[in-house]
């Protein structure tokens, strides 16, 4: 086969391997497990008319009153990218693109920009700030394409980069608003293993719980 990427974060590689070689590769005593390069996608879609009252519902306004606004904290948004906006001007301090042939447009889908806005939009409405932590810095880690989907390999590549560069950019939080089908036990899933490695390194990892509940404000379990 042909090795494409090496992932120190989970001691693994992504590779193109002929189907006829899978059995022999599995039998190699150095092989712990083999996973297909599954597809993940964004969790949720952009709203045309968002209602910005979630900071108050979550109690963020009380944190603001105490002076807690995310200053000196960097959040890595692992998503479709972060487009330049007036509210994030000079706040995206680094970018990493795991899509080798990705488009030049910073966020051709819009989901990553939306998530960054929810996290740290510093603009105000009548209730206060429109984002939870209006003083945070961002690192844009693009792992999903313009259609909102991406491969496990690209997502893990992005998380691997975060782990390697967390100290340089003071990355304290990673946001993963994406989902995929359940293909293995949680403790064996490659993305879960990468998330655990970030957690072990002292990074807070925020993940999507799901948007597929039968009724509003519910999720499927």
Describe this structure in words.
- The structure is a single chain.
- With 221 residues, this protein is of the alpha/beta class.
- 25% of the residues lie in helices and 24% in strands.
- The protein is built from 6 helices and 12 strands.
- The chain has helices at residues 22-27, 54-57, 60-65, 111-120, 152-169, 190-200; strands at residues 2-7, 12-16, 39-42, 74-79, 92-97, 124-125, 128-129, 137-142, 149-151, 171-176, 178-179, 204-207.
- Strands 5-8-4-10-12 form a 5-stranded parallel sheet, sandwiched between helices. Strands 9-3-11 form a 3-stranded antiparallel sheet. A two-stranded antiparallel sheet has the order 1-2.
- β6 and β7 form a beta hairpin.
- The protein is elongated, with a radius of gyration of 19 Å.
- The N and C termini lie far apart (38 Å).
Descriptive keywords:
about 220 residues, alpha/beta, five-stranded parallel beta sheet, three-stranded antiparallel beta sheet, 6 helices, 12 strands, about 25% strand
């Amino acid at each position: 086969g042909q090795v494409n990427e090496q992932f120190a974060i989970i001691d693994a590689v992504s590779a193109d391997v002929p189907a006829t070689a899978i059995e022999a590769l599995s039998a190699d005593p150095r092989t712990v497990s083999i996973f297909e390069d599954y597809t993940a996608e964004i969790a949720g879609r952009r709203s045309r008319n968002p209602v910005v009252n979630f900071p108050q519902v979550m109690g963020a306004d009380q944190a603001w009153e105490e002076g807690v606004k995310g200053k000196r904290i960097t959040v890595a948004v692992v998503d479709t990218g972060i487009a330049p906006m007036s509210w994030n001007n000079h706040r995206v301090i680094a970018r990493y693109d795991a899509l080798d042939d990705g488009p030049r447009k910073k966020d051709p889908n819009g989901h990553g920009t939306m998530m960054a806005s929810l996290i740290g939009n510093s603009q105000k409405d009548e209730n206060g700030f429109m984002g939870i932590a209006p003083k945070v810095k961002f690192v844009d880690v693009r792992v999903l394409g313009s259609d909102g989907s991406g491969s496990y390999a690209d997502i893990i590549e992005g998380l691997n980069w975060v782990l390697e560069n967390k100290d340089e950019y003071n990355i304290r939080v990673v946001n993963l608003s994406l989902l995929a089908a359940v293909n293995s036990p949680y403790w064996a899933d490659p993305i879960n293993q990468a998330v655990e490695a970030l957690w072990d390194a002292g990074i807070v990892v925020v993940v999507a719980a799901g948007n597929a509940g039968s009724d509003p404000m519910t999720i499927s379990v």
